[in-house]
What does this fold into?
Amino acid sequence: MRTLFVAGNWKMNPNSAEAAVALAEAVKSGVGQAVDVRVAVCPPAIYLSRIDPVLAGSPIGLGAQNMHAKPDGAYTGEISGAMLVDAGCTHVILGHSERRHGQGETDDAVNGKLHAALAAQLIPIVCIGETRLERESDLTEDVVARQLEHSLAGLSPEQMAGVVLAYEPVWAIGTGLTATPQQAQAVHAFIRRQLAAKFGEATAARVVVQYGGSVKADNAAELLACPDIDGALVGGASLKPADFLGIIEAGQSVTAKGKG
Ligand code: PGA
It folds into this structure.
């Protein structure tokens, strides 16, 4: 079984460094030294260097929510992979749907960032997923296949094995609607078949594919118990320590029991 990986995407929250540090401290003390589930938090960029020392001595990874594809230069308002590493980051979320749909980020742009993240030794969490209209038009597999094809272009199997994917149906993000475990598992299995066709069975078996979209403490266990769901990318519930820790605990209990 792939080690489950639970990551919190804080998005543009909370409103102060003090509150961000308090949230990181609460997650750190709740997680303790539990290392049977991988955990990361992804605060806004401006808090990263404040939170890095808070997480010292803990197994919790620190992730950014975006980065630029270029290493340096005249890119006003942007942040490079090397800057994220310097701030203590181990991970970076790429191609989140709020960037794809809100900021016009294309698969090709995500691909450029992905190569830059790997070059900077960051673990990328690449998000993919269909909109409600695409699902209702029966286009989920087409959309996911296209996103995988273009977002992951040019990776070697070895590089792919170190990339985390997050399947996040756009209609389930921040809406309280969750894909059922059956719906999510079906897409995760499809993703793994696509990875096998592109990178080989052995690599596909190693890739961690998180589910994201209204994951909460009370629905995490049944999602994480699905054979091809290897963790969760958590938005809203990652802002409340008890809820986020509840999701991690669900992961620990699935890990202890084994899947299926
Ligand atoms: P949500 O967000 O858990 O609030 O639905 C998930 C995400 O956007 O990664």
